[in-house]
Description:
Elements (H helix, E strand, L loop, with lengths): L2 E2 H8 L5 H19 L13 E4 L4 E4 L16 E3 L6 H4 L6 H17 L11 H8 L12 H10 L10 H16 L26 E6 L15 E5 L13 E3 L5 H9 L1 E7 L5 E2 L11 H13 L10
Helix pairs in contact: 2-4, 2-7, 4-6
Amino acid sequence: MDASLREYLQKNNSQLMWKERIQIASDIVVALKSIHDENKVHRNLHSGNIFFKQANQRFGIGDLGFCGPVIDQPLKSIYGNLPYIAPEVIAGKKYTFASEIYSVAILLWEIASGQIPFIDLEHDHQLATHIVKGIRPRMVPAIPLEYKNLMKQCWDSDPSKRPDINELADRIRDINKLYQNTSNRSETGENLETNKTSGFETDYASKLYQFEKFPQPRNATDAFDNRLAQKNLPNKKKGGIFKVTKIFKRRPSQNDINDKETTKHQMYYINDKYKINNNPKLHLKIQEESTILDVKEFLFNGTLNVVDLKT
């Protein structure tokens, strides 16, 4: 049975060398390039939708239910896995090819670290706000410089500064060639640990989100270092990679105050009867192709008419 990238990393992380990690990244970029070359975007790229194919020992992209052309207007809702959603999409801009490059950046980090991004944080309005304000998963030790720089460029808050798929493919190919020509070295296993589940649980499934009144996305740069708040992100994991993640804070403007007062967040879930609601205790379950099509109708037009073919 083909394993997802998430499952593969959880099982094999401590044994992976950098040449193997970079090969995984290369497989994903090549697969995404084939989608972008058809003038389409995937729209829901995350480690649960990347699969290791036993037949050819390569990784490929699955779950193509939302794959299609770029829509020339912002969606009324966001469907996806929040840590992988680009900040401009959260802030109400349209989903573009560059938005998907951001998702690749988070995947590059996940491959490098063996960790699920923002592993113990709720996928809620607060996490979305941090992403828009430039908070990214914390760097782990021993990441190759070329790989690190590429990853950081891919998750830049400005979509125009991210490489397109052709540049990304060229650069990851060059890095891959460099490492495939080196001998096996145990340069990563001793520095990385497979993520462990704490008492705090997060649902990593894709969901429908509606966010409103977000500020313009920005990078968290050194300019904000002297204004760091004296509290961490709301994370119950005491050790590991999120221990010293900080919240950037600046003097609020009138626009910020207005945004704070009017910011709204709504998550929609679909229960076992395919009824849309905003009950956070119910999980999103999309199992029928007809349901996926109807969720797409909700994303693009703001309406949802779910049909249960079993009745």
